[in-house]
Amino acid sequence: MKMFWTWKGFGKISAKAPAELSQKELDRLRAVELFSKTRDVGLVCSLFGISRATLYRVLHRFNPRNLMSLRDKSKKPKHLRVPEWPLELILAVRGLREEWPGIGKDKLVKLLRDEKGIHASASTVGRIIGYLKKRGELVEPRRNGISPKRREKRPYATRKPREYQALAPGDLVEVDTMDIRPLPGIVMKQFTARDMVSRWDVLMVRTRATANTASEFLKVLAERMPFEIKAIQVDGGSEFRAEFEESCRQMGIRLFVLPPRSPKLNGSVERANRTHTEEFYEFYHGSWNVAELNDALRLHEIKYNTRRPHQSLGQITPLKFLLDNGIIDSFHHPALSHM
């Protein structure tokens, strides 16, 4: 083991260690300092939770004039294996890749076997493609950019964490849209929101489902839900982006977005859409003017929340559920003042 002696002022060096040192490296410096004072290997190892071999290694390479010597050295091998592929395989991969620039290595393996009679693994083909690109011997053609874009990272919305649970009204409100096609050539959009705990629903119809109308629905939702909304869950539709996402951020409402092709994760509001179709639209014979339809839909919403028993709530109404659990006071809550 390389032994060394510290000089006067060593403690000041450790106290003013450069900011570039990580916590792990600072601990090593303190271990070296403690060892220089005590020469007790067992004490240092037990105090810093390191093995004797580690301590000896740190002491061996430590240079008091260069605290960067406390850093881990690269574990990269000194001698790297140089890949050795047959020239025939390299040329075959390059030729097929140039002919088929849009397919992956797994399909290239099949083409190599069927057309060239060459057997190679997908990992080998992938390494050869990377090798050729690095040497500039394989240049990917410029893409036209007309393929469907991959989903970009949302500025505010996130996936709902697995551990997140809706335990109280407002903890999670599912929001969705539904097509209303009453007559040929007429299409309207219904915005539906359902609270996962109380089953309280809010409904609104507009001629189109855009981020602007969705943002408008968010304000209506905050007015008609008789409790604070903490989180909303939506699918990846364009109407739930832009202004809607920004409105959620400004209102302090967490926004969870579903993974692609997974409407079952918003099953509660999907079931609500079916219920309102069967109980309202199937028996509605009024005007299909948006304003008049919304008036009729509002009356249905009030009946649904205050008079209709819900099996999932033990055959009581959402209103009674909220009252029984002390969530609201029917005489004072603004959301109930016009009912």
Task: Explain this structure.
This protein has 339 residues and is of the alpha/beta class. The chain has helices at residues 10-15, 23-38, 41-48, 52-61, 87-99, 105-116, 122-134, 211-224, 242-251, 267-279, 290-306, 318-324; strands at 173-180, 188-195, 201-206, 231-234, 254-257. It is built from 12 helices and 5 strands. A 5-stranded mixed β-sheet has the order 3-2-1-4-5. The longest helix has 17 residues, at 290-306. The chain is flat and about 85 Å long.
Oligomeric category: single chain
Described by the principal axes of the CA atoms, the overall outline is: flat
N-to-C terminal Cα separation, in Å? 85 Å
Biggest sheet architecture: 5 strands, mixed
Give the count of helical stretches: 12
Under CATH, the homologous superfamily of the largest domain reads Ribonuclease H-like superfamily/Ribonuclease H
SSE-based structural type: alpha/beta
Query: What strand line-up does the widest sheet have?
Result: 3-2-1-4-5
**Count the strands?**
5
In the CATH hierarchy, the third-tier topology of the largest domain is known as: Nucleotidyltransferase, domain 5
What is the N-to-C succession of helices and strands? HHHHHHHEEEHEHEHHH
Overall pLDDT metric: 86
How many structural domains in the coordinates?
Answer: 3
Q: Any idea what the radius of gyration is?
A: 33 Å
CATH class of the largest domain: Alpha Beta
What is the share of helical residues? 40-55%
Keywords:
alpha/beta; 5-stranded mixed beta sheet; 3 domains; 5 strands; 339 residues; Nucleotidyltransferase, domain 5
